[in-house]
Design a protein that fits this description.
alpha/beta, five-stranded mixed beta sheet, about 300 residues, Nucleotidyltransferase, domain 5, homodimer
Chain lengths: ~300, ~300
């Protein structure tokens, strides 16, 4: 008899990533699709298709990480800043369709769960995670428990009356407006023309382009303001940075560390570490699978 | 036989407020002294004098709220931004001197504890509190438990690379630099000359002085950015505003509500209430007494 598997789905603003994952967080199969964002129905059909393709006899549950606030009482996805999703019972819909237990969690909370259980946070019992992707997601573990508040760390204000936030968010100066992959792409286009994006920005910086280095440095410094705030709130042992744009690595994390040390109080700032996630872009789907096993 | 009492001491940057408090949070006697801030020894002597004056046969414990990070392991006051205090075992010192159990807690955490048990937060199990005084303190109750992280909400960044923070804090653009009583006094002096302070600023605004109203409105708007961030982090049912400068009331809270609603996400922003503390400036000493009863 083989080990039970879960289908973990990371429903991102750009991509749907899904995989078969065992209880130890090992991925045996992994696939990706572009996220259909035309309508909510197209989005949900894309999600069902992803699950469908990975179904098999060993699958005992399905978990979905969603870029949305999840209502703690009803389990419904309340709404998303970055994808067309308003008040949907994803768990109910999928469990009816596939006859399996389904768990739904905020995508960044899922990633935090995965990094804590199987990744960079394996040895700590307090950590903060930020996922830098289409948006900026957040999660926190406090004294060995996943924070059940919003933990929407992408929507902390780092610039009062600052740049407008993304999508449906009415906020100004949110961390997401400066430190998401989307914000990096916008900055890259302003500097290098309409074909540029966050990936090219990072590549140019690695090749020594001073303007690209400076842009990433400014993004990293603002990330450091956000991290400093979170250190002063939670006093975490570890701050884990994940999501696709975390590939910029020390080009953003070194300036972030520098500003964090200016903003954060003693003794927290001396003991906290800022590190990249160990699971890379798989954190979301691994975490979603962990949520699935909890629902099973 | 009379009810057991605790001495609760709120060691503030400007005043030491102390009182005799019973388990229900009722204050039977209350006194205030100016805080001696010349040296650490003078400060601790002032603290001991306050306890000494309130001692009596019914007193079973002493509690102190300190504007300092408290080391969770050793119970020591790590250091304060606003008063001369560096790595001191206040509990050990006082219990040796007075032969009573002594509890020490961060001052804003104490105030949060008091407002939650006996004040504005009596009926909720998640709340955020901000105390606007010499500095800006913070505390949070999450799912019926006091947050044991730093909860230093005065030191969240609301303006990246903004105004220098107070005292020994190296940060820039912290909420405390804009929304503390100290910051309000500085703004009042810039507008109305060296004799003005936060109290006069509030009085002028109540008398209809447009400049004073505008200054308080700007302070309130920045407070709203900070509160919006905290709502997006914790999704609290209630945000309680205490401390001496909370006397500015709707002159700062109305603009704060307005900006909070811009910054915070659905559905949190629709259900959260921003209210003044019910215990006024007594929250700190009542909370310190609650901490004392827990130590007894």
């Amino acid at each position: 008899m083989t080990d039970p598997l879960a289908i973990g789905v990371d429903l991102g603003g750009t991509k749907i990533a899904a995989g078969l994952v065992d209880r130890e967080g090992t991925i045996s199969e992994r696939r990706e699709w572009l996220t259909p964002t035309s309508t909510e129905e197209a989005l949900l059909a894309g999600l069902e298709e992803a699950v469908e393709e990975l179904l098999g006899a060993d699958v005992v549950a399905v978990g979905v990480g969603v870029p949305s606030v999840i209502d703690r009482v009803t389990g419904r996805a309340v709404g998303s800043v970055n994808i067309p999703l308003t008040d949907v019972d994803i768990a109910g819909r999928l469990s009816e369709r596939f006859g399996l237990p389904v768990g739904v969690e905020n995508d960044a909370n899922s990633a935090t769960f995965a990094e804590w259980r199987h990744g960079a946070g394996r040895d700590v019992d307090s950590m903060v995670m930020l996922t830098l992707g289409t948006g900026v997601g957040g999660g926190a573990v406090i004294e060995g428990r996943l924070l059940r508040g919003l933990a929407e760390f992408g929507h902390i204000v780092i610039e009062h009356d600052g740049a407008p936030c993304q999508g449906t968010c009415t906020g100004r100066g949110h961390l997401e407006a400066y430190a998401s992959g989307t914000a990096a792409t916008a900055a890259a286009r302003r500097a290098f023309g309409p074909a540029a994006d966050a990936h090219r920005l990072v590549r140019l910086a690695r090749e020594g382009d001073e303007q690209a280095v400076a842009i990433l440095r400014e993004i990293g410094r603002r990330l450091g303001s956000g991290i400093g705030s979170l250190v002063n709130v939670f006093d975490p042992e570890l701050v884990v940075i994940g999501g696709g744009f975390s590939a910029a690595d020390d080009l953003i994390l070194d300036p972030a560390r520098e500003v964090m040390r200016r903003e954060a109080l003693e003794p927290a700032k001396d003991r906290v570490q800022i590190v990249r996630g160990a699971l890379g872009t798989a954190a979301g789907l691994v975490g979603a699978a962990m949520v699935a096993f909890e629902a099973a």
